[in-house]
Write a structure and sequence with these properties.
- The complex is a heterodimer of chains A (about 220) and B (about 80).
- Chain A has a 9-stranded mixed sheet, sandwiched between helices. Chain A has a two-stranded antiparallel ribbon with strand order 5-8.
- Chain A has about 220 residues and is an alpha/beta fold.
- In chain A, α1 links the parallel β1 and β2.
- Chain A is built from 5 helices and 11 strands; from the N terminus they run βαββαβαββββαβββα.
- Chain B is of the alpha+beta class.
- Helices cover about 35% and strands about 35% of the residues of chain B.
- Chains A and B meet through loops of A and α1 of B.
- Chain B: GO terms for molecular function: ATP binding; phosphoribosylformylglycinamidine synthase activity.
């Protein structure tokens, strides 16, 4: 029997790849496989995580160089087939740079690198990434970014709102993001990008377990 | 083949807040500079490139600017080109 396997992409400069793998394997018993960015063979993974970090040293713009890796080129087919892709922090930046998600992530309004726990409202249940079946809920996840201010034009924002593509909003906007946006999905719901780090909230001993549901939902079909 | 020196300027769109520019403006005022109304920071990229004439080179540079040098969601670009 084949086990469900989550591919964790490793770029030069990724630094949350091991955390994601630890959270999936150690906390959720979900098998993972590291995927080097030069690989374009995604045939033996069932879902993909683009982890946080500083791919290619954030040269030019965060995520701008990673976008041209063979793996990201292969991601188009993977996404079209309906398989699930989660981009966390730098992974979210890569997803916007490569056009899988609209908008862009730019320098925080106050220029600080913000490393903190934040309260987030779950806004949409699209894609089943969050445990909000009853009504609007709040979760607490850590953020750690210098360039996490979500920016888009007013037409894109309207589309995000109208099509329920906004997944998470900050309760107390830490970085100046448009409309307090912390995470969005694509229209189909199988691609989620978010600035907070669910993999850092998967065990009570490190401060909370509000990230477990999102990582676990990678195995949804 | 002709060789060209290209200078590409990438700027944040006017609608995008530039916190680094704001911080630098604040420091400029502390330095004693008067009359600064606005200060925004962009990037300049220098490229030396070969091609068959200016039109072909412009096509290449347009592609580079549009797909790589600038993210047109947040940035505008322009460039100047000099035949070497």
């Amino acid at each position: 029997m084949d086990y469900f396997t989550v591919g964790v992409v490793v770029f030069p400069g990724s630094n949350c790849d091991r955390d994601v793998s630890w959270a999936l394997e150690g906390c959720l018993d979900i098998r993972t496989k590291y995927l080097w960015h030069e690989s374009s063979d995604l045939s033996d993974v069932d879902a993909i995580v683009l982890p946080g970090g500083f791919s290619y040293g954030d040269y030019l713009r965060c995520g701008a160089i990673a976008r041209f890796s063979p793996l990201i080129n292969a991601l188009d087919e993977f996404v079209k087939s309906g398989k699930r892709v989660l981009g966390i922090c730098n992974g979210f930046q890569i997803l916007t740079e490569s056009g899988f998600l609209p908008g862009a992530l730019v320098a925080n309004k106050n220029l600080n690198f913000i490393c903190d726990d934040v309260e987030l409202d779950i806004v949409s249940s699209k894609g089943g990434w969050f445990n909000n079946v009853d009504e609007k809920q709040t979760i607490k996840l850590p953020i750690a970014h210098g360039e996490g201010r979500y920016h888009c034009n007013s037409d894109t924002l309207k589309k995000l709102v109208d099509n329920e593509l906004i997944a998470l909003r900050y309760k107390n906007n830490p970085n100046g993001s448009s409309f307090d946006i912390a995470g969005i999905t694509n229209e189909k719901g199988n691609v989620l990008g978010l600035m907070p780090h669910p993999e850092r909230a998967c065990d009570e001993t490190i401060g909370g377990t509000d990230g477990l549901f999102t990582l676990k939902s990678l195995i949804l079909k | 083949m002709d060789q060209f020196a290209v200078k590409v300027f990438v700027r944040l769109r006017p609608s995008v807040l530039d916190p680094a520019g704001e911080a630098t403006k604040s420091a400029s005022i502390k330095l004693g500079a008067e009359g600064i109304k606005s200060l925004r920071i962009g990037k300049m990229i220098e490229v030396k490139i070969e091609g068959n004439g200016e039109n072909e080179v412009r096509e290449k540079i347009d592609l580079l600017c549009d797909r790589l040098f600038a993210n047109t969601v947040i940035e505008d670009y322009e460039y100047s080109l000099e035949k070497l």
